[in-house]
Write a structure and sequence with these properties.
heterodimer, A: Alpha-Beta Plaits, three-stranded antiparallel β-sheet, two-stranded antiparallel ribbon, B: alpha/beta, Rossmann fold, five-stranded parallel β-sheet, two-stranded antiparallel sheet, 5 helices
């Protein structure tokens, strides 16, 4: 009886055949709608920061070096690949690629960093509205036009006390 | 150096211990999927063992949480000396999307030293196999930090030098890329 059942089992196994995928030898295609690592297109990005506002993991950091230069940094550490940044992007600058082989020995390898030029408003000289009037006055890009010569003076760095260090953008765990 | 050490120490087969410190069970399912006949990990000698004392590598899933921190540390200390730690999934790599919750301490590297990171939520079984292959030195890693820089202002900017008065009318001339 047991021999018969084992033979039956062997038959079932033979019928199934070999199912093991030759993955490390051959590349495996992913499904069409698979969301892998997001890729940021610097040519299309306008630096609105919508992806940073919508990221549920808060993985996209926006850092204004000065009024004109904005740094967007994507640290893929706790990215859940939800695709909300790609959904919300008005310029379609974020695409969810099919890359999934992101294994590294250093977590900084999946970082992406974009430096963008921000254009300022010709009237007020700044791009964003601050909540209070004092904050508006304190803003880096607050303008001091040369009234005597009627010249437009570019003083975006007037309120920066020292040279900004761009590399020290870090998320505090605590 | 770690690659050479890995090839020397873990030349034959890698016994892995599967530690979940409070994940959502998604990465566990993917890790168990690696061991199924479809992604037969045992052909590389990778075997799942039940005790950390038998294991060479620990597969961490889930963030470091307050309730399981001591258990994870004890499991790591119980492993024999040449040990590898894989952080599988975005929770283990960076704390997950509930990283600022009161019970989540952060990534598992706050508790145990992590050697290899496999991001993904959850990572595909192929990605896990790829990570183990990177650890064993069979393939090279594909990722590198990317940095983009705009070298030219994409929008024409008005320069104060081009601002001249003409018939009591301010005219912006020379609208070109700066």
């Amino acid at each position: 009886m047991s021999v018969l059942s084992k033979l039956k089992e062997a038959l079932v196994c033979l019928k199934a055949g070999r199912v093991t995928l030759p993955y490390p030898a051959q590349a495996m295609p992913v499904p069409e709608k698979f969301r892998g690592r997001p890729i940021f297109d610097v040519a299309k990005c306008t630096g609105c920061g919508g992806c940073a506002n919508n990221c549920p993991a808060r993985e996209i950091l926006v850092f204004d070096v000065c009024q004109e230069v904005r740094v967007l940094q994507y640290l893929g550490r706790r990215c859940a690949y939800c695709g909300r940044c790609a959904d919300v992007c008005p310029e379609k600058a974020v695409t969810m690629s099919h890359e999934f082989e992101n294994a590294t020995n250093a977590i900084g390898d999946i970082k992406q960093r974009i430096e963008l030029f921000m254009s300022t408003c010709q009237r007020c000289g700044r791009c964003f509205k601050e909540p209070t009037t004092l904050d508006q006055l304190k803003m880096k890009g607050y303008r001091f036009d040369d009234v005597a010569h009627e010249r437009w003076v570019f003083r975006s760095k007037a309120y920066l006390d020292s040279e900004p260090v761009v590399d020290d953008i870090k998320i505090e765990w605590e | 150096m770690l690659k050479n050490l890995c090839q020397k120490m873990f030349g034959r087969s890698l016994w892995v211990y599967h530690a979940n410190s409070g994940g959502c069970n998604g990465c566990d399912i993917e890790v168990l999927n690696v061991l199924t006949p479809y992604y037969d990990a045992e052909r590389f000698g990778i075997k799942l063992v039940g005790s950390p004392r038998h294991a060479d590598a620990m597969l961490c899933q889930g963030p470091a949480m307050r309730s399981t921190a001591q258990a994870l540390k004890r499991a790591y200390d119980a492993m024999p000396a040449p040990k590898l730690v894989f952080a599988i999934g975005s929770c283990a790599c960076g704390g997950g999307i509930w990283f600022d919750s009161y019970s989540v301490l952060g990534p598992v590297e706050k508790l145990v030293p992590v050697n290899f990171y496999i991001p993904g939520c959850p990572p595909r079984p192929e990605a896990i196999i790829y990570g183990v292959a990177v650890a064993l030195g069979l393939v090279d890693k594909k990722t590198a930090p990317v940095q983009f820089k705009q070298i030219e202002l994409p929008i024409p900017r008005y320069h104060p030098g081009d601002l001249r008065g003409r018939d009591e009318l301010v005219v912006y001339e020379k609208v070109e890329k700066v």
